[in-house]
From TrEMBL:
Entry similarity comment: Belongs to the proteasome subunit S5B/HSM3 family.
Superkingdom to which the source organism belongs: Eukaryota
InterPro entries: ARM-type_fold (IPR016024), PSMD5 (IPR019538)
Protein name as catalogued: 26S proteasome non-ATPase regulatory subunit 5
Cellular component terms (Gene Ontology): cytosol
């Protein structure tokens, strides 16, 4: 394992003391572009740095789409082809980037939702606004595919990213537009195969459904440009949430055993 380049350490120290600048982002992009694959630890440090940058920007409400325009396509490329250790970190950083604060009211969150939608499209490297939706769906499909991989850590990180996406009004649009995704969410058997490798991921998957339902309720009728969940699908999600992650059948069976 090669040591972390001094340039990465230098920028980490700088942004620990004060908010990052556009020049810092540009330096980060250059670092990411030139890091050899053997410097996995350095790449992880760089993405930790990106995490810090994004939080600073969102806290200051001063983020501009162009600031991350160089870094996001790099994240998109790594999302397509990276070792599991780095892929997990990339997924975690994207969840931080795309998650809307749950406590933020709709009127205050709307500009940020538009910004994160633009960021999602930039992850695919799309230069054309008219292609944003198709490119966003490609990114979403890739994350969903990772949520079905056999690697536990990657699977968990991908599910957490899907939950973060569901905090967005455009997230429920992707939920509706991605063929087969609702059926996948409502299938409680998908996480059984990995239960022996760690804590079951079914509650994480449940949080995706719960968040999608809450986002629909919160944003209903406020953003006509983004497709909402139809009444039939919303009723299915509501029933799933009512029954909990394990389902009412399991709960009722447990009660019956205790009473017997």
């Amino acid at each position: 394992m090669e040591r972390i380049p001094p340039a990465v350490v230098e920028i980490l120290e700088k942004v620990s003391a004060q908010a990052g600048t556009i020049q810092d982002y540009e330096k980060l992009y250059i670092l990411l572009k030139n890091l050899p694959s053997s410097q996995l630890e350095a790449a992880v440090s760089a993405y930790n740095l990106l995490d810090i940058f994004v939080y600073m920007d969102l806290d200051n409400r001063a983020a501009e789409p162009g600031v991350l325009s160089h870094v996001l396509p790099t994240l998109g490329r790594l999302l397509q082809n990276s070792p599991p250790e780095l892929l997990t970190r990339v997924l975690n950083v994207l969840a931080d980037v795309l998650r809307l604060p749950r406590s933020m009211p709709v009127d205050g969150a709307t500009p940020l939702a538009h910004l994160t939608w633009l960021w999602l499209s930039r992850i695919s490297g799309s230069p054309a606004p008219e292609a944003f939706k198709n490119d966003a769906l490609k990114v979403f499909a890739r994350v969903w595919a990772l949520a079905r991989q056999p690697f536990y850590d990657v699977r968990q990180a991908a599910l957490l990213l899907l939950e973060a996406i569901m905090t967005e009004p455009w997230g429920i649009t992707l939920l509706m537009d991605q063929a087969g995704f609702v059926e996948y969410l409502l299938n409680r058997s998908t996480e059984n195969s990995l239960a022996s490798e760690g804590v079951s991921l079914l509650p994480v998957k449940f949080s995706i459904i719960s968040q999608a339902y809450n986002t629909q309720e919160k944003w209903c009728g406020t953003c006509p440009q983004w497709r909402e969940i139809d009444e039939e699908t919303l009723a299915r999600l509501r029933e799933y949430v009512r029954c909990g992650p394990w389902g009412s059948v399991r709960a009722e069976a447990a009660v019956a055993i205790e009473q017997g």
